[in-house]
Fold this protein.
Amino acid sequence: MRGVIERCLLAAMALLASTSVFAHHGTNASYDPTKAVTLTGVVTRFSFRNPHSFVEFDVKNEQGEMVHWVGEMNSPTVLREAGWTATTIKAGDELTMTLNPSRAGTPRGVVNRMRPILVNGKQVLGTGGSNEN
Amino acid sequence: MQAIRAVTPASIVRARSVIAIATLTAGLTAATPGHAQAPAGGGGRRGGGAEARPTVSVPHDPRDLSGVWTRTSPLLTLSQTPPPFTPLGKKLFDAKKPSYGPRAVPPAVGNDPMGNCDPLGLVRNLLLELVAVYPMEIVQTRDRVFQFFEWGHSYRQVWTDGRPLPKDVDLTFNGISTGGWAGDTFVVTSGFFDDRSWLDHFGMPHSTEMTLEERYRRLDRDTLELNMTLTDPKIFTAPWVSERKIMKLAPRSREIAEQFCVPSQEAEFNRIVRDPAGGVVR
């Protein structure tokens, strides 16, 4: 029993250490919490709707090609609690955020709100968020 | 794609321990000074401890369950020890592909009804409200008790006018419920559940023969206790008795928000985000 508890605590600590998100529907199945990619691009759309919000933005890769990324986020109810509104991010904004990328290698990721999020160079919201469903 | 393996209820207990602790830890991590506070002695927006701590009680009516209640239990299912499955229960469990727990697959290749905004069903509503960020409101009227669930913006009603459960009625996701007081415990009996819903995030099945007993008790003004017993002989070889679930009274400022699961929005989300994230092209 003690071993089980110790393993559970270790797992919980590992989750904390990874600054990964947790409990969002299928998060760790779709996205790799051990990887993080910080991207800067121009927002084309911020969908602040139930049951999931997401942000679309265009990012220039190392080859100079434009890649359309989409970051998965929580419901507006959860985001509002952390201070977000429908206009926190707007189309045309320059956005920098960190994603845990898709395990499938597609330009999709879950937004890591534990890391700073910059809109037009200013940190508007960042650390302290959880991604519970 | 992650392999889908058959897992028995007993074998998911260990993983659920991890999930329970990790969820609790995530909740603690999420707590920030800016969150609303409950009245003195009450739980916060994200709940209090897992144990009920009877306090010097502010005067309250123990037979008045009204209020917005938020969760404290980190466990997303009834208890850590489900009863053994029947052969049918095991077959149905194996057919479900959840996106939580040890059997988790990307939602794009799973079959969780939640992923299409299908109704959660009463048991999952109760469990979700108990552990997630979305609270539940109880409203009592002369002949009914209503529970409003924030997630999915749904409700259930418990008839308290003395009527028995009907003999034959159409199946519904939240079932048919009657209730009454046994001392200061509000006892609810429910049946006639549509079996398309899952009991929890982990794909636990149920049949249309499932019955549920809920026992609510207001321990003090700010603390509500819930014990459940689920009986479904087609799925489980014994009744499933829940752990004691504790809810805390939310601040008066916390209202039930319009948290619809919008099917068209979820379909768009699946097309733009969830399916590509899971490597699925439709």
The two ends of chain A are 30 Å apart (CA to CA).
